[in-house]
Specification:
single chain, 8-stranded parallel beta sheet, 13 helices, TIM Barrel, alpha/beta, 46% helix
């Protein structure tokens, strides 16, 4: 199946809070336990995606520009410095060279957010001042989530005080693996409360949850507890974002929206580094959830190297030639 239409709407940076926040609901154990996942059917559906959607030329450029607007540009390294973060934020402000933007007729394009550790929130907030780009901070003992509970809650509160507008929390995987859904719900509710006005992305670490059924149930519980986004991975697991896992999570989001009327966002993270992969994920979002989820307030890529490859593809669209990857550094 092919499509010749780009995603509708502007590719400029969009407001982050155009939807009513998901307030959560009481834990519905009947709904959680009814959640199932047919692995063979899910994998067959996922396997068809790369070949079913094809966008070319100007339409592809428009889709890639939309992908850029949905990137959480990320640096989560032990040797991060204020200077590195400032350079990354400069790239977030202008993710594509000015001459390419002019040739493409784009104006005001920026990424969805910049994602950093707590200690780098201050430099990121300063570097992004006036841009409208939010700072996201990983929290709650990222990536393992095994620090004492009161410290995980305090970490959220400190990051919000420091200026983070979004908090990426990690759930306790053992609660999923042991089926302690009430405890997972209570944990997520506490994290949501600690975030206050900051939006919370619940990282499920799907590569460590054992089964797709666990992914479906954990997705529902986190949304019931008030998650604004559900996210696949920390990027530190051996298996991160995959299409089968994404399909399960998107259908949980769809079910939750149909039941409650609230839209919850989705963030695949880890291993998405090629422009063509971003097109597959955008097509999946469009087919499963519709055009409304193709905007940065409801969809993000957790990525560090994806932007460079997208910029290379946009340069090829404009000039007809591919440039070396080193010419598209993140900072």
């Amino acid at each position: 199946m092919t499509t010749d239409t780009a995603t509708e709407g502007t590719v400029q940076h969009l407001p982050q809070t155009v939807e009513p926040r998901n307030p959560g609901m009481a834990l519905d154990m009947d709904w959680v336990m009814r959640a199932r996942a047919n692995r063979s059917a899910i994998e067959r559906r996922a396997a068809t995606l790369p070949g079913r959607r094809s966008v070319k030329k100007a339409h592809q450029a428009a889709w890639l520009a939309r992908a850029i607007s949905c990137i959480d540009l990320t640096t989560l390294a032990g040797d991060d410095t204020a200077g590195r973060v400032a350079r990354l934020c400069a790239k977030a402000r202008q993710p594509v060279r000015a001459d390419l933007l002019e040739a493409l007729g784009l104006d005001g394009l920026s990424v969805g957010a910049v994602c950093v550790y707590h200690d780098m929130i201050g430099p990121a907030v300063a570097a992004l001042n006036g841009s409208g780009i939010p700072v996201a901070a990983v929290s709650t003992g990222f990536p393992a989530g095994l620090s004492p509970f009161h410290l995980r809650v305090a970490e959220i509160e400190e990051s919000v005080k420091a200026g983070a507008a979004e908090i990426d929390i990690v759930i306790s995987r053992r609660l999923v693996l042991t089926g302690d859904w009430q405890a997972l719900y209570d944990e997520m509710r506490a994290f949501r409360a600690a975030c206050g006005e900051a939006h919370v992305k619940a990282i499920l670490a799907t590569g460590e949850l054992g089964t797709l059924q666990n992914v479906a149930r954990a997705s529902l519980v986190c949304m019931m507890a008030g998650a604004d986004f559900i996210k696949t991975s920390t990027g530190k697991e051996s298996v991160n974002a995959t299409l089968p896992v994404s399909l399960v999570m998107l259908r949980a989001i769809r079910d939750y929206h149909e039941r409650t009327g609230f839209r919850v966002g989705y963030k695949p993270a880890g291993g998405i580094s090629r422009a063509k992969d971003s097109l597959v994920y955008l097509a999946l979002m469009k087919e499963e959830l519709g055009d409304r989820w193709l905007r940065p307030d409801l969809f993000r890529f957790g990525a560090s190297s994806l932007l460079g490859d997208i910029e290379r593809q946009l340069e090829h669209h404009v000039t007809g030639a591919y440039s070396a990857s080193w010419r598209h550094a993140m900072g």
